[in-house]
Amino acid sequence: MNNPTLLSGIQPSGKLMIGNYLGVVKQWVTMQDEYNCLFPLVDLHAITVRQDPKLLRQRSYEFLSLYIACGLNPKKSTIFVQSHVPQHAQFSWILNCFTYMGELNRMTQFKDKSQKHASNINAGLYSYPVLMAADILLYQSDLVPVGEDQKQHLELCRNLAQRLNHEYATEEKPLLKMPDPYIPPKTSGGRIMALQDPTVKMSKSDTNEQNVIFLLDDPKTIEKKIKRCVTDSGSEITYDEKTKPGIANLLTIYSLITQQNIDEIVQSYQGKGYGYLKVDLAEALIEHLRPLQEKQKQLISDKAELDKILTRGAKAAQELAQKTLDTIHQKIGFI
Ligand code: AMP
Ligand code: TRP
Known about the structure:
Blueprint: E1 5-7, H1 18-31, E2 36-41, H2 43-46, H3 53-70, E3 78-81, H4 87-96, H5 101-105, H6 108-116, H7 123-137, E4 143-145, H8 151-168, E5 180-182, H9 219-227, H10 245-258, H11 262-268, H12 274-300, H13 303-332
Parallel strand pairs: 1-2, 2-3, 4-5
Helix pairs in contact: 3-12, 4-7, 4-13, 7-8, 9-12, 10-12
């Protein structure tokens, strides 16, 4: 089959939440039939900030089980752990030697993370986008679905592909495929906002859990978080990101969960206050997540089966990755 290749990764840190789900994982599920999909759990990226080893191990299994519960099919897609495929680190080193410090100095995520982790601004954090480029280019990926915040990293990746191709590719022997980012528009989940502050992004590692609906939150917790979330002044339900960012965010989430369009939802709440929307949204979320949570519980109880999936995934990924790496080694003169 000659389907185009799609690759996207998430760090197994924090806890998967509805922003990751609506913004990326749900899109992956629908793309599995048209693309050759690879989904690495990027644990090498995760250790750029200090991780508790026990928790990292636990999260890696948790993420895998949630991926499958959300609808990723390990028979169709290659799901694997980044550190199981040594070619990522190998290629990343080579790409480091083609990346200018000036390029990395411009990365806004590095600047943000350096502020957040001021006592541990390590070289890994700095060259993080280079490892990400290795993830993508190793598999000759055509499409990379990510949230808006990753756009800059994708641009660097494209620049690196172009740089290496310019230096080494020939017409008979192309080297690296130029990947395209796919960033879903805001109303289709590209940017779900925090519940207590709808002007900042919902984040899976937010220390204030009231900001976030995690995929494994129980019904009571979901109800409480939605009930207490910050809404805007006024009482009329309309979609306006500028003057009513809180309500706009709730409408976006509701629309994605119930697959109704936002205008229809706004119509159906004419004359009703915010409270009604909150009650209905909480219920819709609880019912949407219930089957997903049941499936996850079943999956996580069988680690042996999860390990089998990862072993298969790593083997398939290694074979593909080695092909690209062999060509690169030959081109740069390694014997
Ligand atoms: P992170 O949770 O930051 O590790 O990101 C994992 C993936 O989910 C990336 O592709 C992000 O762009 C995406 N993502 C993270 N937070 C959100 C959000 N609040 N809304 C939509 N997508 C998100
Ligand atoms: N940097 C991405 C993030 O934080 C995660 C990531 C690593 C990734 N490698 C990737 C995303 C390759 C897409 C493709 O969200």
